[in-house]
Design goal:
Layout (H helix, E strand, L loop, with lengths): L1 E5 L2 E6 L30 H6 L10 H9 L5 E5 L4 H26 L3 E6 L11 E4 L9 H10 L21 E5 H10 L7 E8 L2 E8 L4 H7 L8 E3 L5 E3 L13 E4 L6 H15 L5 H18 L5 H17 L3 H26 L16 E3 L9 H5 L5 E2 L7 E2 L9 H5 L5 E3 L18
Parallel strand pairs: 3-4, 3-6, 4-5, 7-11
Antiparallel strand pairs: 1-2, 2-8, 7-8, 9-10, 9-11, 12-15, 13-14
Amino acid sequence: MKIAEKSPCKIMLADTPCVGLTPDRVKSPWNTGDTFDGGSVGLTPDKVKSLEVTGKYGREISGCIRDAAGRENAVLIVDMASQPELCAVLAELAGDQLASAAKACAEAIGAKDLIAAVPDQVHWEADGIQCISVLPSPVLCEESALYHMLETGELRSAPLERDFPSQGYEGRPTVAVDGETLLKIYAMAGSDYQNTKLLLVKSGEETLLAEAPVGMKVSTLLEQLEIKTSKPILLGGVTGEFSDGNEAIAWDKKFDTVTVFTEKDCMADQAAKLLCRAQEESCKKCVLCREGTWHLAGIFQGITQGKGKKEDLDMVLDIGPLIEAGAFCSFGKGMARAAVTAVRVCRDELEAHITKKKCPAGVCAAFSKTSYCIHPGLCTGCGDCEDECDEMAIEGKKKFIYMIDPDMCTGCGKCVSSCDEEAIKVNDGTIKLPKKLTRVGKFK
């Protein structure tokens, strides 16, 4: 691991999952001058109550703290499971600060219990904090899903069944706060806090933890990191967005991760994998998310398998906003936005798979075989090619232009040698082909 200083970004480089990254080797990313094993001057319950803090998931954390402070039997929950990659790094770098901030917040609301939802990949524990092992999932950024996971061990979002903030975990007044927001509270209690955001930047095999001022463009951050981009990037993972990098960094979970792609990456393949992950991650509570993830994943998988149609892209743009508007929680809304932005910013590459039957990155196996077609201007309708095809991939009849089904064709090339007119060509997308059987000499 090495540390580099490049104003205005402080950059920490490490191999995933940040093995060897220790608190005494890294300074506070909020430029307070304190090392992570130091304390924050002024971190008291009264100070916590006086702060104005919004969480990354849109929660008014300060308002929730002040509300819960006036209620009985309150509980504070630390969410380390909805963004496990970033939380794993923060727990390793700043475990003591997380604990200090959590205890100060718990004392501020007079919490009877202080609980942390901690997945296996996040190694964090502290005296006075009850750590409960949970399955990690971006669905848990929805409070009701987090509470249900802690109560039952099951992934289930039910935002319409809860009345926040008075009825949360076990029906008690509850404040849920994520790990990075706790560290923000810790830093804001000091005197030199700067409004910045931490981002995990993934480029190839390397993962970097970077700090950038809120308001800086993502593209500027990547320039500071000397990371070149030739394709769209992915902000926020499965509930994020594909982007050209012109967004301004905000205090939002969308900017927890930045994934950079190269010419070796196929954007259709990346989008398909992302939507398949969404299908697996969905709690399947609401119809729009359950059916939407299945349908959207199928569309992008079809594109990578050579079965895509141009109208599929418009379908994504049509149904995506409907899913986003109607899904119960932020997971369903986010996964639909990821699909829509994939079409908007990666359209040229997606269309290449559909119209040219070509994967520009050479990743999709469906396009790695040689694809053949029958030139309609050269075919005499003799049928010799159909007789030669063992896969029954050639359709036609005498005196009609024969057609090759690309899904059934194995690319063996036997038909090529059988055609005396040399009408069977490698399909490079430049030959206009009939969509139905047409008499020889009638196709234009």
